[in-house]
Amino acid sequence: MSQNLDDLLEFHWMMDMLQTVDVGIVVLDKNFSVQVWNGFMESHSGLLPSEVREKSLFDLFPAIKKDWFMKKAKPVFELKTRAFMTWEQRPYLFKFPNYRPITGSESYMYQNITLSPLTSATGNVDYISMMIYDMTDVAVGKKQLEALQVSVSEAQELKRTL
């Protein structure tokens, strides 16, 4: 009985951690129906887990290009490999407003996404996890650095012509 209680307590704190971590966590089945939707996703989307569970990701977020996303997810399901989407390739997957006070210059949250296979005890991949990282601070910093480099380059060119 003690082992069952320990297992239950461990499960409880693990679930609490998944809900409070500052990373979006979504679990999708092979039909791309949402199975898990953590607190980060709830907070940024305004959608409760009960509102998204068992619903198609593409119905919930029609702006996500279905063919493109399915192509990205296919090797995750079939080859059991990870797939990555960076903010430099595509600024965001979920068009969440930017709530960061320091980087308030951007309207939307820049995101990096990792798709990972969730292998069952039988070795099958029936689910994948999607982790959504807020990269807005990094993106804003890089954009500011690039703008500064252009300004310096233009100033150097102007100095040469004078």
From TrEMBL:
<protein>
    <submittedName>
        <fullName>PAS domain-containing protein</fullName>
    </submittedName>
</protein>
<dbReference type="GO" id="GO:0006355">
    <property type="term" value="P:regulation of DNA-templated transcription"/>
</dbReference>
<dbReference type="InterPro" id="IPR035965">
    <property type="entry name" value="PAS-like_dom_sf"/>
</dbReference>
<dbReference type="Pfam" id="PF00989">
    <property type="entry name" value="PAS"/>
</dbReference>
<feature type="domain" description="PAS fold">
    <location>
        <begin position="17"/>
        <end position="132"/>
    </location>
</feature>
<dbReference type="InterPro" id="IPR013767">
    <property type="entry name" value="PAS_fold"/>
</dbReference>
